[in-house]
Amino acid sequence: MKKILTVLFLLACFAKAHAQVSLSTGWKFKAGDSTAFSATNFDDSQWQAIDVNKPWERQRHDYYNGFGWYRLHVTIPASLKNSSYLKDSLRIDLQNVDDNDELYLNGKLIAKGGSDIKVSNYGPRHYMLATNNPAILWDKENVLAIRIFDTGGDGGLYGDKFSISMNDIMDYVSINTDADFVYGAKNAVGKSIKLISKGNNYNYKGKLDFKVTDPETGKVLYEKTNKATFTGSKPFTYTFSAAAIERKSYQLSYVFTDSLSGTKISKVESTPYILTPAPSAKPKINGPEVYGARPGNPFLYLIPATGQKPLTYKAVSLPKGLSLDVATGIIKGSVSKKGDYPVTFTVKNAVGSGTKQFTICIGDKIGLTPALGWNSWNAFGLSVDDGRVRTAARTMIEKLASYGWNYVNIDDGWEIDKRLPSGEITANQKFPDMKGTVDYVHSLGLKMGIYSSPGPTTCGGYLGSWQHEDQDAKTYGYWGIDYLKYDWCSYSEVSPKDPTLTDLKKPYQVIRASLDKVNRDIMLSFCQYGWGKVWEWGAETGGNSWRTTGDIQDTWRSMSEIGFNQDEAAKFAQPGHFNDPDMLVVGKVGWGPSLHNTHLSADEQYTHISLWSLQSVPLLIGCDMGALDKFTLNLLTNSEVLAIDQDALGKAARQVVKGNTYQIWVKEMKDGSKAIGLFNLSDKYQTITLPGTTAGTYKTIRNVWEQKDLTKGAGDFKASVAPHGVMLVRVK
Ligand code: GLA
C-alpha cells in the first residue's frame, strides 16, 4: 500500500530529558503506623518487599485501609546535581498517592500531601527540596520513608513513576499536545502544539525538531527543524497538517533543545485514525435484541436507531401496558404479566426503513445485556456537578443513544456532608435538584445511575449508606434512579478484619434486599475490586455486574494488565450478571477538575474497546462528554463492535492463545458465529495467525471495525497488527 505523508505548514515549538534516579524496586513495606518507622537506623530488613507500581491490595493486603509505610535505601549521587543546569532543588516525584502522604528523608519530615493525612488527597506528588538542605546526604545512603493513609478502596503508592531528579530548566516547560487533531481530506490529520513555560522568567531559545515516522517500516517520512523561542508569557505554537494515505497511526515526535543550557524536552504521540464507517442515511436499529424488566415496575426503553432525521418509530405486538412515542422512539409504561414478548420495531425516514425483531422479557431478570453508558468518575472525580451530568445526558442523546448508549451515572461526590434530621440522604450544593435532574434524563429516554458505599463513608470521604440502606434505597426510588454502583471503601472499618466469604457478601445482600423493596428496576453494580473472587458469587448475591479489578488508569500498563487478565472470571458472565473490568479510559479524562487526552494511543484504544466488548462487560464511558472529539466519537459508535458486547447469549470471550507477544480471544455469539480479537501486545508490528482450527469452519471473516468482509473460505487467517493494536473479526 502507498504511504504518503506531507506536512503542509509549520509554525513553532517544544521538549525534556535529564538525569534521574528511577527506583521502583528495593522498596520495603509495612501496614500499620509508628513514628519509629521514619528513623534512619530503623531495621526494616524483615519488612515485605513491595512494588511501588501497584496498590498494596494487589500485594497481599487485600482488604486493608489505614496507615502503611514504605521505605527505600538510596544513594543520591552528587553527579546528579553537578550535571544539572539549575542546581538549586532536588525533586521527588510520586505517582500516585492513594490517599494522602508524608515524606521523610533520613528521619526528617520534608513534605506532605495535605495538612490532615486522614483527608483524601489522591494523586501524583512533585516535591522540591533545596539542594543545601542538610537532610540530603549526597553520595551516601539516604533513607526515604513514606507514610501513607488510605481512606478506602485501593491504597498506597502506585502508578508509573517514582523518581528522584534535579529540578531543571525543562521542569518548567511542557509540550502541550492537548489540542484535538483536525481532520482533512484523505485521512489527513493536523494540529497545533505549544511550547509552554510556567513558573520562571527564563527566556527559552533554541530549536524544535519535528519528525513523522511510519512505525511499520521505521521509515522517517518527514522531518523539519524550526527555531523556537518562548517565555512564560509568550508560548510557541507549531502547527502542521499531514495527509496519511493509509489507515493507521503514524508516530509524531517533538524535541525542543534549549541552546543556552543544552537541555532538551521531548514528546512522542501517535496520530489517531478513523475506522468506523459513517452510518447510512437509511434507518438502522441498533442496540441489543433483548431487554428485561420486572412486572409492575416503571418501564423505559429508547429504541436506538441511526439514519437521517426525522425518524418515525413503530412497534408491533408491544405487551399490554406499554406505549411508544412514534416521534422519539421512547417506550414507557408498565407490564404486569410475566412473559417473553416478541416485538417488531420499524423505523422509517425519507430514504427508507429498518426493522428489528426484539424480545421484551418481563420477569425477575434485568440487565440482560451489559450496561452501555457514561460515568462521571474517570473524567471529573469528585468535582462532578449537575451541569456536567446534564451535558453528558444531552451529548448522549445527540450523539450516542442511537447506538444503544443509555445510562448516565453519577459516581462519588454528589452526597451532602450530613444526613437530614430524619436520617435521609440528600445531594450537596453541586446538585441543587436531584429529582429534577433525573426527570430530565428520563425525559430524554435515558437512565440515571448513582453511587454509594456500604461503609460509613465512600472512597472519596463522602457519606456512605451504612445503617441507612433501606432509607437510601427509598430515596433513590423517589428520585427515579435506575442503577447503583456500590463501593466497598470504608466498609472495612465495620466488617471483620479478615472478612470471610460470608462477610464479603453481606453488604451486597443487604443493599440488594433494600433495593428490592423499591418499586423500580435498579441495576446493582458491585465495586469491591474483585475480592474473594467475586465473579464466582456475584450473580447469586444479586449483582448485575461486579468489578473484577482495582481502579483503571489511562495507561497501557493499567489497561492491558486488567484487560488481558480477565479469563478466570470469563466463564461466570451470563445474561443479567456480568464482569466489570472498570470503566473506559478514552477521550478526555482526569479524575478531577483538570482533564487531559487519554494517554492511550489510538491502537491501544481500539484494543480497549475491542477487548471490553469481547468480554461482555458494561461499557461506561469515562470522559468529558462535552468535549468529545471526532476520534473518540467514532470509537464509540461502531454498531458492529457494540453488537459483540450486547450479544444476547451473554458469554464472555475466552483467552485461547496466550503467546509472549500476542493473544487471541474468542467469543461465542448467539447466531453461532464467533467474534475474535487478535491482539498485538508488543511494541512492533507483527503478523498474527488465527489458526483455521480456532476459527472453525467459516464462510466469511469480517473486519468488524471497518465493517467489511475480508476473505471467504476456511483455513488460517493472517493479519498484520499494529503495536498494542487489534484485528477484531467476526467469523461466520
Ligand atoms: C473507588 C472506585 C472508583 C470510584 C471511586 C470514588 O476508587 O473503585 O471507581 O468510584 O472509588 O471515590
Description:
It catalyses: Hydrolysis of terminal, non-reducing alpha-D-galactose residues in alpha-D-galactosides, including galactose oligosaccharides, galactomannans and galactolipids. Belongs to the glycosyl hydrolase 27 family. Pfam families: He_PIG (PF05345), Melibiase_2 (PF16499), Melibiase_C (PF17801). InterPro entries: Aldolase_TIM, Cadherin-like_sf, Galactose-bd-like_sf, GH, Glyco_hydro_27, Glyco_hydro_b, Ig-like_fold, Melibiase_C. Keywords: Disulfide bond, Glycosidase, Hydrolase, Signal. The protein is α+β, with helices and mostly antiparallel strands. The chain has five domains: 20-167, Galactose-binding domain-like (Jelly Rolls, Sandwich); 171-270, Immunoglobulins (Immunoglobulin-like, Sandwich), CATH 2.60.40; 284-296 and 309-361, Immunoglobulin-like, CATH 2.60.40.10; 372-652, TIM Barrel (Alpha-Beta Barrel); 655-731, Immunoglobulin-like. Helices cover 14% and strands 35% of the residues. It has twelve helices and 46 strands. It has an eight-stranded parallel sheet. Strands 4-3-5-10-7-8 form a six-stranded antiparallel sheet, with no helix packed on it. Helix 3 runs parallel beside helix 4 and helix 7 packs parallel to helix 9.
